[in-house]
Design a protein that fits this description.
The chain contains twelve helices and no strands. The protein is an all-alpha fold and 284 residues long. It has one domain (4-283).
């Protein structure tokens, strides 16, 4: 019972995010490509109905994610979002009424099996509800510095794999940080009510990082092939979230010989993610 609610809510959020990714990518490819960081890109996208539907899916995913984070460990919830990529590919093939690319089903199986193996071996535990400010400050500083460095590096590159990979990695850090801040804010809402939720800094911080993630994601989608941006985004979010869960929320994962199946699971996930990203690109 302890993991049922967070797992189900995380799976719902992953499905909603997968739908949003497909719709947002369609919209992002329908507007003029920008060479630099352009906040006005969102204004162009607002004129695309498909992007607005995608944003409704993002909101639904946010609700599911909030409930999952309120009831389960960050290091359990966020890695489940690895399933976004296979779900996105399946949704894309359904919307376009095309058959999945060759090798797609084995790749989906590798991601699912790898995720199950890694989580079963790691057995994330712990659900701390309060993180002191002296823990947040270095974590925030490190994440912001990494995002700025990756974004600056990516935007200096011409459109291609390097640009998309850097922007995808920057987006991943923003996603993980948003989840960590959201977890804290949702617990404040649960324990102290709406007034405290609206006056705590974590609420506005996760809103800011969420907006930054959205902007970076749109630029990553325009910046290069999915085979570069999606693995960086998918794997980066899971890894950074796990790190934040352990460092900030004192969550626990198994170590010792349990690391062997965890690494095997991670290798299966990585192989499946890269294969699915290539399949997505080949389907163009």
């Amino acid at each position: 019972m302890g993991v049922v609610v967070p797992v189900l809510c995380a799976l719902f959020a992953a499905l909603s995010n997968a739908l949003a990714t497909v719709l947002q990518q369609q919209a992002a490819l329908s507007v003029p490509r920008s060479d630099g960081f352009r906040p006005g890109l969102i204004l162009d996208l607002l004129r695309r109905p498909v992007w607005l539907v995608g944003m409704l899916a993002v909101i639904a995913a946010g609700v599911g994610q909030a409930v999952a984070l309120a009831t389960g460990p960050l290091s359990l919830v966020q890695p489940l979002f690895v399933l976004e990529l296979p779900l996105a590919l399946l949704i894309a093939t359904a919307l376009t009424r095309q058959r999945p690319a060759a090798g797609a089903w084995p790749a989906v199986a590798a991601v699912v099996a790898g995720l199950g193996l890694a989580l079963a071996a790691a057995a994330p535990a712990g659900n701390r509800t309060h993180v002191p400010l002296d823990r947040w400050v270095p974590a925030l500083a490190a994440c912001v510095a990494a995002v700025l460095a990756l974004a600056a590096t990516g935007l200096r590159r011409p459109p291609g794999r390097a640009r998309a990979g850097c922007l995808g990695a920057a987006t991943a850090i923003c996603y993980a940080l948003t989840a960590g801040l959201m977890k804290s804010a949702v617990h404040i809402l649960d324990e102290r009510g709406l007034g405290a939720f609206l006056t705590t800094w974590q609420t506005y911080a996760f809103g800011a990082t969420g907006i930054a993630a959205l902007l970076l994601l749109e630029h990553a989608m325009q910046g290069g092939p999915l085979v570069a941006s999606q693995p960086a985004l998918t794997l980066g979010d899971a890894c950074v979230s796990l790190l934040l869960g352990v460092l900030l929320y004192e969550e626990h994962v198994r170590t010792g010989w349990w690391l062997a199946p965890q690494l095997l699971g991670l290798a299966l996930i990585a192989a499946g993610v890269f294969a699915l990203a290539r399949a997505g690109v080949s389907r163009g």
